[in-house]
């Protein structure tokens, strides 16, 4: 979260990808840093047991949302 | 400042507490420099590899830059942040799980 | 205006500086010394470092604790300028990952960083190691501990009720700082035990609950006294909690003399207490003497936990029992300071104090 807020603060649109278990923690921390309108891109938890192909499939699903986070 | 220095108090908090706005977005990623920041959590690289492929296929960026944090457990060190700031238009960070 | 400094209030518009600082929400509930640029500059000069030097990023907000930010908070806490190197070392220590300040500051548990000072700096700064060591009355103890807490809240973001969610907390969240009474201790100091030289000045920080007194007026032998102390250690966290980590035993000088008089070292004390503080699985089953008890993943290792005689240690190792000698030379009263140190939690962390 800290990195994303830092880059946004420096004028760089940022998409931070987090797993669903960490959405609330990420939100709370972003708000604590003053970034109330900061939003993450969410992929389903868990990640660690997945194969490479399964992780790549998550990227395919999340891709449009990532682009939306970075553009108007 | 118009006040004499002895009449001012210094701020004990860090400036992180001030409200922030998110950055202005471009209309499209076409022609932009995109940085992919790997937070060093296992599997992040697989996700970012695929995102890079998709960006090249669909977004026509000017360049894609790959960067990696030393550890997901801490914010990126200042030198790395400074390396990125000013040299990228947008940034994608993954993957916190 | 000093570099990096931001005036937060203009007293011309505020009748009372004390009230103005309360209004900013930057105090711990007690009034603070207004951090004027002059006071802050004097503190920075006394530590021999540049105000802009980054000492640590303070979790959970990872606010930047520069020398100047620490100085501002130290001034507010009432520190003399020469205390700043101690506060800086303490900030460094709590920001060590092993301390897990993120957890300490956010948890619903009650820990507060206890600062333990060793070495020559105690005499130089008049750090109390003797009578009333945990109590009020001495500027160094009162303000060094308070400065560390103000940094955790103002720079780290550990604001009570918002990010800091402690159910009860304890008075050590105002200030919590002691010195070890090395001069009357029969043993090497805590710092020397951890590899520092007797001429090094150090801080150690422990994520600590409030002290629990252990009174024993009559024991004349080491074994008798430790037989009194052990059951008080057994109730740390709760009487069935096991595999606990760093916890501090503060032996009063009289108690220390009784134990050392039998030829016992600190290692002997640790070993004796560790052995005494093991309990059979059957006594630790949830439902017996309380609904809490051994966690499921431990219980699963035993076929019939309710009858099993296997001994489970209260502390993960004898070395988790940290021992200092402190307090007045009269009085047979020691104290246990429970750590917030469950498995993968916080640990005692040392830093050397750099005095210019």
Offer a concise description of the structure.
With 97 residues, chain B is of the alpha/beta class.
Describe the model:
The complex is a heterotrimer of chains A (72), B (97) and C (356). With 72 residues, chain A is α+β, with helices and mostly antiparallel strands. Chain A has one domain (2-70). Chain A is 51% helix and 12% strand. Chain A has three helices and two strands. A two-stranded parallel sheet of chain A has the order 1-2. In chain A, strand 1, helix 2 and strand 2 form a beta-alpha-beta unit. Chain B is 23% helix and 20% strand. The termini of chain B are far apart. Chain B has a domain at 28-94. In chain B, strands 2-1-3 form a three-stranded parallel β-sheet, covered by helices on one side. Chain B has helices at residues 44-58, 78-84; strands spanning 33-38, 63-68, 90-96. Chain B has two helices and three strands, in the order βαβαβ. With 97 residues, chain B is α/β, with parallel strands linked by helices. By secondary structure, chain C is α+β, with helices and mostly antiparallel strands. Chain C has a domain at 1-209 and 345-356. Chain C contains twelve helices and twelve strands. Chain C has helices spanning 17-23, 37-47, 67-77, 84-94, 101-106, 121-125, 139-154, 190-193, 222-234, 253-261, 266-276, 296-299, and strands at 54-58, 63-66, 112-118, 177-179, 202-208, 212-215, 247-251, 278-280, 311-313, 321-325, 333-337, 349-352. Chain C has a four-stranded mixed β-sheet. Chain C has a four-stranded mixed β-sheet with strand order 6-11-7-10. The longest helix of chain C is centred in the middle third of the chain and has 16 residues, at 139-154. The model of chain C has no long low-confidence stretch (mean pLDDT 94). Chains in contact: A-B, A-C, B-C. The A-C interface holds A 2, 28-29, 32-33 and C 60-62, 157, 162-163. Strand 1 (14-19) of chain A pairs parallel with strand 3 (90-96) of chain B.
């Amino acid at each position: 979260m800290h990195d994303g807020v830092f880059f946004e603060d420096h004028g760089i649109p940022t998409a931070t990808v987090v797993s669903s278990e960490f959405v609330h923690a990420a939100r709370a921390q972003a708000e604590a840093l003053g970034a109330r309108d900061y939003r993450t891109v969410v992929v389903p938890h868990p990640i660690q047991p997945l194969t490479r192909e399964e992780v790549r499939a998550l990227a395919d699903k999340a891709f449009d949302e990532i682009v939306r986070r970075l553009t108007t | 400042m118009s006040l004499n220095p002895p009449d001012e108090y210094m701020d004990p908090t860090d400036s992180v507490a001030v409200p922030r706005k998110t950055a202005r977005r471009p209309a499209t990623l076409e022609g932009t420099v995109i940085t992919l920041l790997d937070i060093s959590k296992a599997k992040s690289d697989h996700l970012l590899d695929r995102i890079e492929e998709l960006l090249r296929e669909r977004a026509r960026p000017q360049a894609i830059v790959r960067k990696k944090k030393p550890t997901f457990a801490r914010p990126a060190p200042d030198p790395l942040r400074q390396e990125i700031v000013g040299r990228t238009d947008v940034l994608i960070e993954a993957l916190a799980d | 205006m000093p570099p990096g400094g931001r005036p937060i209030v203009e007293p011309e518009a505020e009748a009372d500086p004390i009230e103005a600082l309360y209004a900013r929400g930057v105090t711990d509930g007690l009034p603070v010394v207004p951090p004027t640029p002059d006071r802050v500059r004097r503190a920075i000069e006394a530590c021999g470092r540049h105000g802009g030097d980054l000492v640590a990023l303070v979790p959970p907000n990872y606010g930047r604790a520069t020398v100047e930010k620490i100085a501002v908070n130290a001034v507010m806490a009432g520190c003399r300028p020469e205390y700043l190197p101690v506060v800086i070392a303490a900030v460094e220590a709590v920001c060590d990952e092993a301390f897990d300040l993120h957890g300490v500051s956010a948890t619903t548990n009650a820990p507060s960083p206890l600062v333990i000072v060793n070495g020559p700096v105690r005499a130089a700064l008049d750090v109390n190691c003797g009578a009333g060591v945990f109590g009020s009355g001495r500027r160094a103890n009162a303000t060094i501990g308070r400065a560390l807490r103000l940094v955790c809240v103002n720079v780290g973001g550990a604001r009570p009720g918002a990010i800091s969610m402690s159910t009860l907390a304890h008075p050590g969240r105002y200030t919590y700082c002691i010195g070890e009474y090395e001069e009357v201790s029969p043993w090497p100091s805590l710092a020397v035990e951890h590899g520092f030289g007797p001429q090094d000045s150090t801080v150690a920080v422990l994520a600590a609950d409030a002290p629990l007194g252990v009174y024993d007026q009559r024991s004349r032998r080491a074994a008798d006294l430790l037989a009194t102390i052990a059951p008080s250690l057994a109730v740390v966290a709760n009487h069935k909690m096991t595999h606990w980590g760093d916890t501090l035993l503060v032996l009063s000088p009289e108690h220390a003399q009784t134990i050392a008089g039998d030829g016992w070292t600190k290692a002997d004390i640790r070993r004796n207490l560790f052995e005494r503080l093991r309990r059979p699985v059957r006594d630790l089953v949830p439902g017996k003497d309380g609904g809490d008890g051994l966690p499921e993943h431990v219980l699963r290792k035993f076929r019939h936990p309710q009858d099993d005689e296997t001994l489970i240690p209260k502390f993960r190792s004898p070395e988790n029992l940290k021992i200092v000698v402190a307090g007045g030379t009269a009085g047979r009263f020691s104290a246990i300071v429970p750590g917030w140190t469950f498995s993968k939690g916080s640990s005692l962390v040392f830093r050397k104090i750099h005095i210019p």
